[in-house]
Amino acid sequence: MADQRIGALIVLEGREDLDRHVHGGIELDGKITIPLLHSIFNTNAPGHDGAVLSDGQRILKFGVHLPLSTNLYKLSRGGTRHTAALGLSEKCDALVIVVSEERGTISIAENGQIKELESHSDLKKHLDDFWAEYYQSKTTSNKQWGERRSLKTALAAGSLAFILWLSFAYPSETVYRTYAVPIEYSNLESTSYALQDTVPLQARITLSGSEQAFRTFDPSELIISFDLASEEVEDLELDIDSDNINLPAGLQFFEASPSVLQLKKQYFVPVNVPVKVPVTGTIAEHLQFQPVVPSPEIITILVDTAAATIDSVLTEPVDLSQVEEQTVQQKMLQLEGDSFRLSEQASPNITVTINVRKIQS
Ligand SMILES: Nc1ncnc2c1ncn2[C@@H]1O[C@H](COP(=O)(O)OP(=O)(O)OP(=O)(O)O)[C@@H](O)[C@H]1O
Question: pTM of the entire structure?
Fold first, then answer.
């Protein structure tokens, strides 16, 4: 599957019960076979979203929603599929195999860690170790399970039969899908308030509903929006829930990651300060330089007065060693840190006039 870039998420259960951590999914009770896995994760099949749950011998369920991890720093690469694999491994002793559709890599999530495997033989080693630890003692009884052929098992033996079964059985089931959704903050009084630079601009939203409802829905229209006009306090805690999302009919909000946004609203006060032009280098011996004159000489800066004070603002320096005669240069204002901002009317470009006088010898 990795070689063919077929994205997949396969959970091998350990000793702990998975039911309280996972949601949804269709019961299958079919023997694991390569054609069956291909049918399930075929992107044209309705059931490819979500994870397959296995007890090592049989596929118990597919289309299962796993909890998302919030420890995104543990994921060097990968999106939601990898986040879901890590999330489940943080909650129980299952082994989760992820095949990346985008990169064709295989990763293993186990005991709250995820790592990308270097070779197929690494996967075999992981599976052998897991098998020895969790399934060895079950093997005899598993044999008996293997011999019991349910109707679903029989269907699963042929992938065409499986797809036919799926198209009848699947539409009415509840499925879960996760999307990266942009966050919009509106009605912030922009001249006096700003949000800190680090505000999250998107979150992962999981919706639930029938396959039918998902089919007629365009996820690119989803948006999370917060109206900040009524938010008085400066340290904000905003919950992402169904009130902030434009949910389409037939789909329900299930969870968000992160579920709470911690934001800081900064209050900016306009302050008029003089512009100062620093100089570097030494002027030629036959010249004498007069004070450098910026234009404008005074500028309005918006200052987060709770965090900082300001008595002047600097431009980029003028290099006197390059000056031969009176010149005019454009210099940028240097505003560092997130406690200062330029007012909307002000330009960051300052016209600097460098006056020099020739020394009479
Ligand atoms: N919570 C979840 N539980 C189970 N499966 C999920 C969950 N969230 C997303 N998925 C699966 O992951 C797929 C999307 O993966 P996405 O491309 O966002 O992640 P990725 O880690 O970058 O994977 P890939 O490398 O394969 O692209 C979905 O189509 C769905 O099948």
Answer: 0.62
